[in-house]
Amino acid sequence: MGHATGITMKRAATRALAAGLTLAAIALGAAGQASSATLDTVRARGRILCGVGESFPGFFAADSNGRWQGLDVDFCRALAAAVLGDAEKVTFAPATPVARFPQLQSGEVDLLSRSVTWTLSRDAALGLHFVGVTFHDGQGFMVRKALGVAHVSELRDATICTQSGTTTERNLADWFRARGIGFSPVVFETAPQAVAAYESGRCDAYTTDRSTLQARLGAMQDPAAHVILPETITSALNGPVVRQGDGQWANIVRWTLNALIGAEARGITSANAEQLRATSTHPETRRMLGAEGGLGRMLGLSDSWAYEAIRQVGNYAEIYERNLGPGARVQIPRAGGPNRLAVDGGLLVAPAFE
Ligand SMILES: N[C@@H](CCC(=O)N[C@@H](CS)C(=O)NCC(=O)O)C(=O)O
Fold first, then answer.
1. CA of 53 to the centre of ligand 1 (A)
2. Which atom of ligand 1 approaches the CA of 211 most closely?
3. In the chain, where are the structural domains located?
4. CA–CA separation, 269 vs 55, rounded Å?
5. What pLDDT score does 117 carry?
6. Res 35: pLDDT
7. Contact, 161 vs 194, CB < 8 A?
8. Which CATH class is domain 37-134+239-344?
9. Same topology for domains 37-134+239-344 and 138-235, yes or no?
10. Exposure pattern of 27-48 as b/e (b: 16+ CB <10 Å)?
11. Residue 182 CB: number of other CB atoms within 10 A?
12. Is residue 53 lining ligand 1, measured as CB closer than 6 Å?
């Protein structure tokens, strides 16, 4: 009896503590929301400013009508739908890889969404904050077939074109140094300069993320004259970046990405989101679509934030297929690669919507 009472008392104490923590969390949440400088700025401006690169078809590139297209571009449209209720309320601001971090640090843009590789020094020492992974990539090499090279290790004393201010430049040096293989880097600020130099024969090889190699190969004068070597020398986790110190904005960007991936996992699409919001009985689907749970308010947004992102722009699979699937200008098959849901053998997974 005394024992049972002890347990009951402990339970009561635990409940009281939990209630206290919940209240503290709500108070903190409210304070956090009040201090999101970026969200306040975005709301006052009525638009999101999205930092992209100059041109990388499939990820970020203006089409013949001047409209930006790509996986990274669509992520910013989804964010605009989540935050402002309208996927079109976003302005794209291009910059070179060297200029992109100052562009974000100075407040010129609200985030970067442009194949930025997540590294410790960028995350910890540049005042930046990586929020997730939109595309799992890896560094590769392209050579002219006539060079007769089948592996990266055969590029001894080769001249290799790459871009400055990138992880690619650093990884290239690390990989060759670790193996005691000599080479000459030829570094350019923009991708078109690096590709043009390689194509004109100034370099024996061109190295960057494999997705870029694939995108550039299709646009070369004679694609059949070049080959992408089989080795991937490092993995590259690419995703959106915000400024450090605005936790609420980081959460909004992170959970918008989680919503796109989570929607694919739950079978929620742009076509069925409206119907599922009205009729689904699945608790997580209902919370994700704002039919119950108040999750949007916890982020400082409307409860229909994820619903608007999915309805207006689509889930991760729809965004991927639109920009990189069959029929797209650049095609990177999802099958067999890392950019599939974990349940399908890939690396994409979303935390719980609860
Ligand atoms: N992911 C690597 C490489 C980034 C990179 O080289 N990006 C190029 C190729 S996608 C780029 O932004 N090109 C467009 C431009 O130069 O404007 C990094 O974060 O450093």
1. 7
2. 10
3. 1-34, 37-134+239-344, 138-235
4. 28
5. 97
6. 65
7. yes
8. alpha beta
9. yes
10. eeeeebbeebebbbebeeeebb
11. 10
12. yes
Provide, rounded to the nearest whole percent, the portion of the chain with pLDDT above 70. 90
Ligand 1 closest atom vs CA 54: 17
Q: Which of 73, 96, 168 to mutate to test the pocket of ligand 1 (most atoms within 8 A of CB)?
A: 168
Relative to the CA of 53, which ligand 1 atom is closest? 17
List pLDDT tens digits, range 267-277: 999 999 999 99
What CATH architecture does domain 138-235 belong to?
3-Layer(aba) Sandwich (3.40)
Extended beta strands in 210-331, E state? 226-228, 235-238, 241-243
- For residue 14, pLDDT over 80 is answered with no
Question: Does ligand 1 lie within 6 Å of residue 116's CB atom?
Answer: yes
* pLDDT-above-90 percentage for the chain: 89
Q: Where does 57-166 have alpha helices with state H? A: 71-84, 97-105, 120-125
Which residue blocks in 35-116 are alpha helix, DSSP H? 37-45, 71-84, 97-105
Q: Whose CA is closest to atom 12 on ligand 1? A: 53
Cβ 214 under 6 angstroms from ligand 1: no
Ligand 1 and 211: CB distance under 6 A: no
Q: Quick one: tokens of 96?
A: 């070179």
Q: What are the structure tokens assigned to 38, written together? A: 């970026």
